[in-house]
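Isopentenyl-diphosphate Delta-isomerase
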Amino acid sequence: MTQPPGNTEAGTADELVVLLDADLSPIGTADKTAVHGADTPLHLAFSCYVFDGRGRLLATRRALAKATWPGVWTNSCCGHPGPGEDAERAVRRRVREELGIALRDVERVLPDFRYRARSAEGVVENEFCPVYAAVTDDTPDPDPAEIAEWRWVPWASFVALAESAPWAISPWAAEQVPLLDASGVSAGSRV
């Protein structure tokens, strides 16, 4: 499963995740489809919260076929930078792939976020996951294999949901939203 850093076989570079040690240094790569299980190794990821010009959050509901947290409402997009891929470039790439939109004003707002969570199916997420906020002027055209539903919601409503019913959204969003709100990422004010 583990490959040395920088080893990207032809045709699989977009499917590799970067494995990390306890000090968050890259130690290799693994195929994304094989890395998430009951004993998921620490790896690099990102979360992105996309706002529109009115300060509303693009909330998404994960596709029912997703291996982790299927059908759960969450932030706009999550993903994994490929080996050697710039993080902001990875965010823009993945948002374009999943949501069919371009971003502007991309900002890394929680640079040190890390979490571990276990789904009802027993799949563990174990990620060092910097969080980004961005703005779009586009109308989403999501990939149905990734996104079941989407809607623009007032930021204050999503914050209230995370506080009153954290079980109703993804575990990473439940942890990230209060931190984002406390840092001033409200209604897109920092993006």
